[in-house]
Amino acid sequence: MPPPRWAQSLDAFRTVPKDLAEASATGAMMTLVAVVTCAVLFICETNAFMSAKTRTDVVLDSNQDSNLQINFDVTMLDMSCEHVTVGIWDAFGTERMNITKNIMKQRIDHKGDDKGHAYGDDELTELEFSNRKLEAEEKAETDADWSSSSDQFKHDDFQSVVDAHDHTFVNFYADWCPHCRMFGPSWDKFEADLNSEQDPVKDADGAKANVRALKINCVDFEETCQQQKVQSFPTIRLYRRGGNGKQFVDYRGPREIEGLTTFAREEVGKRHLNTGAKFHDIFSESCRIKGSVDVARVPGTVHFQAMHNKERTLNLAFTNVSHTVHSFTFGQTSSKITNLLFLPAEYQKHGDPLATKTFTVDRFHQAPHHYIKVVHTRFASISDTRSYQQTHQWSVRNIQRNSVPQAKFSYDLAPVEVIVSKSDRRWYDYVTSIFAIIGGAFTFMSMTSGAITFASSQFKGSINKLG
After folding, report:
1. pLDDT tens digit string along 322-348?
2. What is d(CA 289, CA 81) in angstroms, rounded to the nearest whole number?
3. Largest distance between two CA atoms of the chain
4. Residue 41, pLDDT score
5. 415 cis-preceded (ω within 30 degrees of 0)
6. Whether 327 contacts 73, CB under 8 Å
7. Cβ–Cβ < 8 Å for 309, 415
8. N or C: fewer beta carbons within 10 Å in the chain?
9. Which among 308, 314, 360, 362 has a CA at the least distance from the CA of 118?
10. Rounded to whole angstroms, how far apart are CA atoms 40 and 46?
């Protein structure tokens, strides 16, 4: 039974009788294009709807814990377990040394034939100073005479002058000393000839030695002369580097150029200054340190360094703190804080960015220093799982000669929290998009087909009129 006539008048989808409609090749082609377009867009939209996308929001950190757990697994490549120590320093001024609670040390053999041996005095001197390159300003300072305290130089570190050369020939004099005045011209000529290096002084291996001659005015630099225990003027000494200002030989020969030159060549010729010493392991084993420490939830530093023990006293300034980091993470492993393997792939690498990396130095008085920024991250889409994400930079720091090198891990906690959640689309958004795709595709193709048909009819009409 057909619907009443008044109901038919409400039809918004009225159709044209088939007898009045005309199929065309253009329309058929546009229909096929519309169908293919709809199919492709439908697949893409469905895939986007089914795929889970994440969204991140940054808010003030909601974590109210007073403590933070730091977990580490580090191998000190050239340090015996009996000498390695772990320490903590934080922004509250708390400092804990030689921490042993919750820390396990494992002895590891070095690979290769070299099982570690101590450095000799000559090795230490050569390795510490032979590769050191002075800046132009510093070289001018260490090469200058100490004739006056009012010249352009500082003259505040006699040891740096001695350590800047293989040997340093020093004439300690006083302005009022008559013997110094008589000796002055001869010394000045000797100093100029030696420093010009036209006839270089050679060591026991026939290699050119870095020998410098200079003079020190003990009237202007009385304190330095007292420290060197100069008791008469002129006092002439040949210093050797690396001896803390105490390794020297007094010259007691005639105060003339020939005697000074002969003395310098004989003394320098006794020593092997360039033996080709290389850096090597000083311990027969490495040490792998695993454990965790609880610290205040404020910026701080974890450091690893060498220390003495009851049986052995180390030259701590020459210990090597090169290391391999197997893992360095923050936070407890519990039901609320999931293992890194269960986090989204893009967040796993930031949970432990130092893992499996090695950090080495190849010179004395240097140490790797790590800078870590820690961001508390909450994964709302994984049952509110919490993690500490990290960004990491590192550099090699120069250490003062008498200071103990430390492998430092400095950390700082960001005051914000990152919330990671799923960006789910609602089903009616998906349905609306599908309808829009279908309607839009067919409407566009219909308009294109109509435009082509109209243009074709106009073209044919023009041809008929011309014919």
Report:
1. 999 999 999 886 544 445 556 677 778
2. 8
3. 142
4. 83
5. no
6. yes
7. no
8. N
9. 314
10. 10
C-beta separation of 78 from 114 below 8 A = no
3-state secondary structure at position 133: coil
Using the 8-state DSSP alphabet, how is residue 152 labeled? S
Residue 32, amino acid? L
Letter string b/e over residues 320-357, b meaning 16 or more CB atoms within 10 A of that residue's CB? bbbbbbbebbbbeeeeebbebeebeeebbebbbbbeee
Q: In the prediction, which pLDDT does 229 show?
A: 92
Q: One-letter amino acid identity for 179?
A: H
Around Cβ 435, how many Cβ atoms within 10 Å? 9
pTM for this one? 0.65
Number of Cβ atoms within 10 Å of the Cβ of 41: 17
Residue 361 tokens read as: 């130095």
The span from the CA of 361 to the CA of 397, in Å, is 10
Cβ atoms of 437 and 42 within 8 Å: the answer is: yes
The number of beta carbons lying within 10 Å of the beta carbon of residue 418 is 18
The H or E element containing residue 437 is: helix 427-466
Among 389, 386, 382, 294, smallest CA distance to 336 is for 386
CA 420 to chain centre: 28
pLDDT at 104: 93
Residue type, position 309, single letter: N
Residues 283, 299: Cα–Cα separation, whole Å: 33
Packing angle of the helix pair 257-268, 178-196 (nearest 10 deg): 50
87 contacts 98 by C-beta, under 8 angstroms: yes
Tokens of 256: 């003339």
CB 86 within 8 A of CB 409: no
* DSSP 3-state of 31: helix
Distance CA 171, CA 236 (A): 5
Question: Residue 321 and residue 368: Cα distance in Å, rounded?
Answer: 8
pLDDT at position 434, please? Answer: 78
What DSSP designation does 317 have?
A: G
- Check residue 194 and give left, alpha or beta (phi > 0: left; psi -120 to 50: alpha): alpha
Classified as helix, coil or strand, 70 is strand
pLDDT, position 336: 45
* Cβ(327)–Cβ(98) below 8 Å: no
The residue among 51, 109, 100 whose CA lies nearest residue 80 is: 109
Task: Name the stretches of the chain with pLDDT < 50.
Answer: 335-338
End-to-end Cα distance, the chain: 55
